[in-house]
């Protein structure tokens, strides 16, 4: 098990940038694949980006490709989501998650609000 705590959310104007951080507890962080999900009001939670244990493989949803970058620092037990060219439709609660065989570890979420 790994405990996850997100930070870095906030209010930003359209076109702006934010960097989300997720700090993990536990000495086995480096074996987990990590992901960022988001959930907007009235919508289902959706996958935004993932990164494998080494950082050598990433995946992005089409809606954020070219605007968001996921990265990790295993020495700091952390994963990041650099978000750029933000749009009002990026407004959501963003969650960090960890996976071995399934997405079974979740943070509490951080709110991102993009104003037009």
Describe this structure in words.
It contains no helices and eleven strands. By secondary structure, it is an all-beta fold. Strands 2, 4, 5, 6, 9, 10 and 11 form a seven-stranded mixed β-sheet that branches. A four-stranded antiparallel β-sheet has the order 1-3-8-7, with no helix packed on it. It is globular, with a radius of gyration of 13 Å. The termini are far apart. The model has no long low-confidence stretch (mean pLDDT 96).
Give me the Rg, rounded.
13 Å
In DSSP terms (H or I, runs of 4 or more residues), the helix count works out at: 0
Structural class: mainly beta
Helix content: under 10%
N-to-C series of helices and strands: EEEEEEEEEEE
Q: How many β-strands, per DSSP?
A: 11
What does the main sheet amount to? 7 strands, mixed
Residue runs with pLDDT of under 50 for 5 or more positions: none
Kindly, what is the distance between the CA atoms of the first and last residues, rounded to a whole number of angstroms?
39 Å
Q: What spatial form do the alpha-carbon principal axes imply?
A: globular
Tell me the fraction of residues in β-strands, as a range: over 45%
Please state the average pLDDT score.
96
């Amino acid at each position: 098990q790994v405990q996850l705590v997100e930070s870095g959310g906030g209010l930003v104007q359209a076109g702006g940038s934010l960097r989300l951080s997720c700090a993990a507890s536990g000495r086995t962080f480096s074996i987990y694949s990590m992901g960022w999900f988001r959930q907007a009001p009235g919508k289902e939670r959706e996958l935004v980006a993932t990164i494998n244990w080494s950082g050598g493989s990433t995946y992005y949803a089409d809606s954020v490709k070219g605007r968001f970058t996921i990265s990790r620092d295993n020495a700091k037990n952390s994963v990041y989501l650099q978000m750029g060219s933000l749009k009002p439709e990026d407004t959501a609660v963003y969650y960090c998650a960890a996976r071995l065989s399934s997405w079974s570890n979740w943070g509490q979420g951080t709110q991102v609000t993009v104003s037009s």
